[in-house]
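Pasting as-is:
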Amino acid sequence: MSPSVMNTEDAVRRRYEQGAQKVEIELCCPTTYNPALLDAIPQEVVERDYGCGDPTKYVNAGDTVLDLGSGSGKNCFLACQVAGPSGRVIGVDFNDAMLDVAQRNAPEVARRLGYANVEFRKGKIQDLRLNLAEVDTWLKANPVQSASELAALEARTAEMKLARPLVEDDSVDVVISNCVLNLVRAEDKKQLFAEIFRVLKRGGRAVISDIVCDEEVPQHLQQNAELWSGCISGAFREDLFLEAFENAGFYGVQILERMENPWRTVEGIEFRSVTVAAYKGKQGECREHKQAVIYKGPFRQVVDDDGHVLRRGMRVAVCKKTFGIYSRAPYKDSFAFVEPLIPVAKEEAKLFPCTSGMLLRHPRETKGEDYSLTTEAIADCCTPGDSKSGCC
């Protein structure tokens, strides 16, 4: 029996319906949150949260946030406070019982905060185009009892996804999720990461807390409905979790947090929580603007996601796109940036040979071949306020 034959979605739905009615201790992974933010959240929501990390701490003020598998709404209500009144938070879940808890408590959270910037939508996180609330409404008026009626439903859902997607392309600053991606069927996980990538704006990021394992989960454990719905059987192998972001087109994939000791161990396989960040925006043309970067260390040499080799202390030529990527998180603190003395106009920029390997940039390429300036020593070389250093 495979996980799909076992009907993993039904197992997850039933387990979390129970978790919406009463607290499920076994679904909890020890996690700490900002107590000041928790004060605005009703206890019913807090008690029915089943996470394994806190991706909300990586939200910025003004962000449009999408929470995948929002459950009781706790992470949405945390994120909405970090994003503030100028931000916006969307929670997506397909479990009616959990959505009821979240939607019922949203007005009280808004009252306590003095603003309302959270909404909840019904959908599957691996198919963020389809609005399941709209599907439910259509099915009440058009029950499916034959193959022809099924075909009508399929045509209708295709129209819904095209005309009124649940979450639009390039519309979100940050996608967060807390211990939910592992619950998705194995055959849907590639689409899941593609959907995360689709909805993010260029320059946006995903910050995901989830359960990973150090070995492959054997088939007989994947057939166990309790272990699957309990965030065990569907866990990603740790290295493959990071690789899934890379395969979807993300760059700058990094582990922000990793639980030192396993949360659970089953048949010798360790399961622990990690929080991972990944960024969108390396797609596009490579143009020559005479820019260079200098890798500051500490490693002698590193290779980025596109195969660019960066040697410590050397001026490496990069295209404008790569220069911009390195200038932002998570890379910016690792580099010094060299702009050309005379900027290259956009219309004059030629295609840059952005291939793997290392292409060095001679200083005269940025200063100009005829650069011959001679100056006096700068007057402010001393540390500000330090009159004893004698550096000048």
